[in-house]
Design goal:
The chain is mostly beta strands. The protein has 2 helices and 15 strands. It is elongated.
């Protein structure tokens, strides 16, 4: 038995004794679909495990996606909305050099790459080394529920190309 914080060692008999007598089976659903049954003492513990399991098994999306994770055991339950963001793609130059050149990303000259969107903004930057575009929407809408005011991120590798390597001489949207 793995010794967890809620486990105790019975020194009188020198055997491990599990004190998790209140461990319950929790039904896990993601977006309303049954996915698993896990054991935990509380809804919070079950939810933490369910979210961890979800994040470890999902492939990174192209753009931020949201999932409703719910655990139930009798009348007890817990739920959480989980945002799964895309992974930042690798840069061909090692590390991204995120910038917002007005001629590429538009916007106002005083604030290039920033465009109003509902109650937030859409911020566009490009990597000067590899041409990847990063778009962050601070007033994103969740497509399946219509919930607004969320933050989403999207990466588009190879969106812009540099004509003269190492210098921002000329940009061409690909």
């Amino acid at each position: 038995m793995t010794n967890r914080p809620n486990d105790t060692l019975d020194t009188d008999t020198d055997t491990d004794t599990d004190t998790d007598t209140d461990t319950l089976e929790w039904r896990v659903t993601v977006d309303g679909e049954y996915v698993d049954t896990i054991t935990a003492e509380t809804a919070a513990e079950a939810l933490d495990e369910a979210v961890s399991d979800l994040l470890s098994t999902m492939d990174p999306p192209a753009k931020t996606e949201w999932y409703d994770v719910r655990v139930e055991c009798g009348r007890a339950s817990g739920e959480q909305v989980v945002a799964l963001d895309p992974e930042e793609p690798a840069c061909t130059d090692g590390e991204h050099a995120w910038e917002a050149p007005f001629g590429i990303v538009g916007g106002l000259r005083e604030n290039p790459g920033v465009h109003g969107h509902g109650g937030g903004v859409v911020i566009t930057t490009v990597c000067l080394a590899c041409g990847t575009r990063r778009t962050v929407d601070t007033w994103a809408t969740r497509p399946d529920t219509g919930e607004q005011g969320l933050t989403s991120t999207k990466y588009e590798p190879g969106w812009v190309g540099i004509v003269s390597a190492g210098e921002c001489v000329e940009w061409h949207p690909l």
